Structure formats: structure tokens, C-alpha cells
Amino acid sequence: MSDEAELPTPEQVAAAARGEATHAGEPPAGGAGKLNWLRAGVLGADDGIVSVAGIVIGVAGANVSRGVIFTAGLAGLVAGAVSMALGEYVSVSSQRDSESAQLVQEHRELTEDPAEELTAHDAFAAHAEAELHISPDDLASPVQAAGASALSFTVGALLPLLAILLPPASWRVPVTFLAVLAALALTGSVSARIGGSNPRRAVLRVVIGGAAGLALTYGIGHLFGTAIH
Fold first, then answer.
1. What burial class does residue 91 get, using C-beta atoms within 10 Å of its C-beta: 0-12 exposed, 13-18 middle, 19+ buried?
2. Sign of CA dihedral 212, 218, 221, 224
3. Percentage of residues of the chain with pLDDT beyond 90
4. Spatial separation of the C-alpha atoms in residues 123 and 191, rounded to whole Å
């Protein structure tokens, strides 16, 4: 860290120490992380809704047995939750390893060439937040991320599973279809607002895509179910 031009300014260090934004247009320290967690939760629930809805609607197109539909939906829920948890664990573990390596390098450079403006208490943490946008005390936990991902997927998956099982046989598909599209509209709107994009466009995109996917899975299930029988 011999190049002083790369050092954060005293104002940035002070802002980082207060948990405030260190650059114009940047969310306060910790704020971006919370938004990312919220967005990941919404997307996990969305995955659960779409995945299990596709399974139960497809099976319902081929077989009206509540037991068969329940078994298929439950298997999809468990498999999806485990897959989401494992994927999130690997992803966050890699991110944590990368951030830890950057922090070790930053600490080494700061020790070898300490800047005059970084002599305040916990200079390393302030410097890491100002320059790397990483809080040494707030690294993501792979276990927590995996658990949150599995939980959000499960919550989303329960909606189509209950919607297909509770109504009478003749109402199962229409009720599930409407419940899923309503849920997708909600998650699409929330996700768009978190990301600062147009909610109406996001809702239309996810609802049209969801409707097309459900219609396709039901058609394939009905076609192959009729052919097999």
C-alpha cells in the first residue's frame, strides 16, 4: 500500500467508522448486505413457488390421486430445498474465502505501511470498509445463508402444495394456477422494489412467464398421462 492515492480519505474512514456510506450513491455500510439477504429470500421463495407448482400441476394433469400429487410435491420440495441450501453454502463459502483473503492482505499492507490518518481506534476495520467495502465483523455465514435459502424455498413451495391438495379434485388446477400467479406477482413486485426497478414491468414478466410454464407442464403431464394409460 505504498501508493497514497489508493488510500481512502479521512472523511471516508470516518464515515466507515460511523457505518455510513463512503462514496456518493452508495448505501450505508451493512445496508447493501441486508438488501442482498432480503432479495435472496424473495428469489428463494419464488424458486420454491415455481418449481413445486410445475411439479404438482404436471402430475395433476396425468393423475388426480391426491396421494400421488402429494408425494411428488413433497419430493420436489425436499430436493429443491436441499439443492438451494447446498448451492448457497458453496457460493457464500467462496465469497467468504475471497473476502477473508482480501482482509488478510489489507491488514498486512496496513501493518507494513500504516497511514497517518488511520491511527484511530480500529483503523483496520475502518480502512477495510472504506476501501474494500467489507466489514471484518460482518462476513456472511455459509451456514446461515444455506439455512435461509432452504427456508425461503420451503415457504414458497408450501403454497402450491397446499393449493393443489386442499380443494376438490375438479378445482385443484384452477385454484393452484391462480394462487401461484398471485404469489409470483407479489414476489415480482417486492423484488423489483428492492432493486429499484419498475414493479409493473417485473410483475407482468414473472406472471406471464409463470402462466406459460404452468400451462406447459400441465399440458405435458396430461398428454403423457393419457398416452401411458
1. middle
2. negative
3. 36
4. 36
146/84 Cα distance (integer angstroms) = 7
Q: What does the block give as the cell for 157?
A: 413451495
Rounded CA separation 67/81 (Å):
21
Cell of 65: 390421486
User: How much is the pTM?
Assistant: 0.69
Q: What share of the chain is helix, strand, coil (3-state, %, to 5)?
A: 80, 0, 20
Spatial CA neighbour of 130 closest among 10, 11, 5, 12: 12
- Backbone torsions φ then ψ of 70, nearest 5 degrees: -60, -45
- Cα–Cα distances in Å, from 85 out to 53, 74, 80, 153? 19, 16, 8, 9
Tens digit of each residue's pLDDT (9 = 90 or more) over 87-125:
888 887 887 777 666 666 656 656 655 554 444 445 545
Set of cell numbers at residue 166:
386442499
Residue 1 has pLDDT above 50, yes or no: no
- Residues 140 and 36: beta-carbon distance below 8 Å: no
Beta strands of 109-218 (E only): which ranges?
none
Cβ-based neighbour number of residue 190 at 10 Å: 19
Distance between CA 177 and CA 159 in Å, rounded?
11
Q: Which residues contact 190 (CB under 8 A, 6 or more apart)?
A: 42
3-class DSSP state of 12: helix
Name the residue type at position 154.
T
**What interhelical angle do 123-131 and 10-18 show, nearest 10?**
100
